[in-house]
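[User] Could I get a sequence and structure tokens?

[Assistant]
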Amino acid sequence: MDLAKASKYLAASLLLFTLVGDTTEACKCASEHPQEAFCSYDVMLRVKFMESGRINNNFKIIKVYKGPEEAQDVHYVGTQTIPGLCEYHYQVDHTDEYIIAGELDGDTVWLSVCAFLKRWSWITPEQRRGFTSEYSKGCSCSIVWGHSEGSISSNECVWTYQRLPTNLRDFQYKHMVCLPQVEKGGMCTWKSLGTLEPGSFRKRRLTQ
């Protein structure tokens, strides 16, 4: 990892520790929309680990969704931890594939404490479409929590988790993308990945 990235990570970790104090609280991670993970990390890979247990370097890359050409040559997955603060060891199952996002440093992908690492079998068809083509179109937009609709800027989409009925709370996470709309002067709005119609909350599976 280069010095700039290392300094940024260390500063963020120390700030987190200073603000929270209790390391148990510090290790709690806020939910992250898949689009946020796609846009904020250097690489996003679909991999299959050959061994179960702690995350390890015995894996093969199935697909590169984001990253430079050299991402195909990644051989190592490292976890960024500070002794005594959030020393979490990711567990993997060799019977499933995983999608991971992290910072690229040579032939190593570094996973943060709150890394985006999900079983591929848990990823919805809509999210798979997002990783393949749609999330990259929304990286100029921001996804925000806890704002009223009237307080957001034109490049923000509100993640309305707490204001939705229980049966719809995961819908934006699993089925929607935040994209700029040309017809609205570039304003960012939610679109259903199943229908790609602005503001649609209809659940529709994609044709594979």
